[in-house]
User: Fold these one by one.
Assistant:
Number 1:
Amino acid sequence: MAANQHSYDSRQIANWFVERADSESKSLTIMKLVKLVYMSHGWNLAVLDRPLITDEIEAWDYGPVIPGVYYTFRVKGEKTAHVSINEPHDLKRVIDPETVQLLVAAWDRYKDYTAIELSNLTHAVGGPWYKTYEPKVRYRKIANELIKKHYKKKHRSP
């Protein structure tokens, strides 16, 4: 599945979540931030039939990880901070309204979950991470098709 004009750098989507959390005085850990971006990507694939992010997602010990978000936002302590990155112009792109609507829905659905609770959701038996992860094997890519199929199934179930 190729990226399109409605796909974004994962760090831009992460910035959206950090700003949203700040506006509601909620704190985010790096784990929670990564899971929010990942789950939003899954919902975007299922509902809008397009990838949310251009980055690849990897199966790490603690679930799906987006390395660009992890390495950029990883800071000492619990709270993440908005990242001003001057390099890619993609971080300055306006997020289209349909995508913002999906991000708002994802935030509203998951904002009160802890990082561990979100991590547990992404470890579901039969899910994309579960099917891809191998202990002691690093950097295994989780295919968008696996993610899409998983979230389409979740979308259809009550």
Note: Residues 10-156 form one domain.
Number 2:
Amino acid sequence: MSTDFLGVGWQWPVGTDAVGAIAMTSGVDELEQAMYLILSTTPGERPMRPEFGCPLADYVFAPADSTTAGLIAFEVVRALTRWEPRIDVVDVDVTPDPADSTLWIDIGYAVRGDYDRRNLVVPFYVIPEEADR
């Protein structure tokens, strides 16, 4: 299957290539960078697109427990379904790390029209000392 429909875009975070031009990325790398950009943008952050993003920042001071994990999974599915039409979200598993205040967001997805399942893992950090106040 051709992945030409995935397009080519600026590498994120923005950088330069060997000749000083804006670094470009394509294919699945571009797709995963776009997904990460959606998840790391707080709604309201972009003046001309106030609804764009995922409200993960709302959970920074929440406890790292199963309730927060379920809410984060819901928000991730909702944001990726709305803002990334090139993928089908298969599942989202949010797992608290018992060693620290990290919630690991494991996103199972498939590129539209392709049955090759892929995963993207995103760390999310909460501040537990602040959650108890």
Note: Helices lie at 27-40, 66-83, 128-131.
Number 3:
Amino acid sequence: MTEFVRLNLTPPNGQKKVLLHSCCAPCSGEVMEAMLASGIDYTIFFYNPNIHPLKEYLLRKDENVRFAEKHGVPFVDADYDKDNWFARARGMEWEPERGARCTMCFDMRFERTALYAHEHGFPVMTSCLGISRWKNMAQINDCGHRAAGRYDGLSYWDFNWRKGGGAQRMIEISKREQFYQQEYCGCVYSLRDTNQHRRNHGRAPIVIGTQFYRQGEEPDAT
């Protein structure tokens, strides 16, 4: 078997300091290891007020903290801020996945990421959100560029983390680390719709805190 050799990654404008917005350990695992392999100095910014309920939020955050500590990567734990998220989502409760509510959600999270990057001297920000095949990469990148564009000297790195086998390595790392495996996007409306889909197909509803990646198992569609 040919040994896998990572490509050397270069952030925009040759910068070496990056703020990585992370939504969870499974999505960020490959991104983190890829940047470490390229000698990029990065910090994780965890701001995800969309994730509900609190039990689910803490499970996702704690897994991300565990993996960051394993690699010695700085981790910024931003406020939960769920009330502001619900206020911004008002009127979009029945929007479909990848619709206007998701755009609002990405905007909100990236706006806070960009502000932190601006205030703490990060010239580049990026996100692991786009590595998931369940997400619209163009939608995510548009939100990222819009948020970074508010500040002079800040760039959004829209690297395609899926390419070159990145999406598959995301799963491999998740199995290796036995990460908590979330079964819906994160918000209560996604949980509602995912459970309705499961009921329609004769499946039991999601039980939070019970699903983990294991060797030899493939993740469910979420």
Note: The first strand starts at residue 17 and ends at 21.
